[in-house]
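Weekly sync, protein design subgroup
Attendees: M.S., D.O., the rotation student, P.L. (late)

Item 1: inverse folding check
M.S. brought a backbone from last month's batch and wanted to see whether the design step gives back something sensible before we order anything. D.O. pointed out we never logged the input encoding, so this time it goes straight into the notes. Structure tokens as presented (249 positions):
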């Protein structure tokens, strides 16, 4: 999908190697200094302290449909679960997102006779990639992964519940006009830095991180707590976007 420029990833900041390569990469315009990130991540990895009250961990779409065996499975998607569980213990603030489609959502190929999954059609807001039915409201596939153990999560943002608009980002739907309310929530809480994890790196994770920057927040992606549609860990040659809105990695 093309919905204008995503923005440019200016550089990648590799701060430090810690257990399971939980390395942070910076997205364009990141305001935090590399040394500050390195010391914070090292402390979290060693379970020495929690992230500050002005930071939040965002866990994106770790749902059954995106896990192996699901209708839109991300290769090795289940491998992020133990990493996210461990990281989440170090955060005072955790927000989770949940893809929450209506049964005949406009983004489903099944809603457009004569099309097949991964075709691209034109909608009012631009190109729309058509998906297999997934994460339909109230179904097992839409449930958060059973292995997630994040009792400290304080908010779940549901997206794609508007039948005629797709939604990848935790902040904005695909029309780039319809807000989820997350940015306002974070501002009200005094949160200015987001750490993004989940599925998939090159779609919902990337859109979430970039829209966080557009909202004036500092944004980082935790590499080993994500998987992309290629099955690779994030950060291997990040940069570039294809016409469907996929972040090339």
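Designed sequence read out in the meeting:
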């Amino acid at each position: 999908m093309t919905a204008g420029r995503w923005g440019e990833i200016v550089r990648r900041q590799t701060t430090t190697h810690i257990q399971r390569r939980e390395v942070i990469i910076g997205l364009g315009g990141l305001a935090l200094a590399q040394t500050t990130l390195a010391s914070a991540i090292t402390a979290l990895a060693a379970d020495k302290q929690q992230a500050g009250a002005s930071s939040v961990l965002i866990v994106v779409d770790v749902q059954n449909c995106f896990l192996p065996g699901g209708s839109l499975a991300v290769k090795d998607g289940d491998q992020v679960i133990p990493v996210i569980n461990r990281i989440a213990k170090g955060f005072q603030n955790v927000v989770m997102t949940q893809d929450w489609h209506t049964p005949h959502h406009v983004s489903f190929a099944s809603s457009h006779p004569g099309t097949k999954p991964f075709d691209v059609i034109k909608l009012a807001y631009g190109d729309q990639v058509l998906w297999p039915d997934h994460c339909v409201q109230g179904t097992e596939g839409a449930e958060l992964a059973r292995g997630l153990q994040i009792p400290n999560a304080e908010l779940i943002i549901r997206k794609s519940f508007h039948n005629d608009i797709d939604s990848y980002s935790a902040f904005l739907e695909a029309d780039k006009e319809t807000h989820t309310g997350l940015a306002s929530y974070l501002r009200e809480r005094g949160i200015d830095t987001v750490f993004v994890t989940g599925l998939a790196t090159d779609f919902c994770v990337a859109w979430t991180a970039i829209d966080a920057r557009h909202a004036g927040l500092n944004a980082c992606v935790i590499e080993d707590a994500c998987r992309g549609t290629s099955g690779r860990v994030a950060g291997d040659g990040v940069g570039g976007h294809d016409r469907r809105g996929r972040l090339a990695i």
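Discussion: The chain has four helices and eight strands. The first strand starts at residue 24 and ends at 26.
Action: P.L. to compare against the previous round before Friday.
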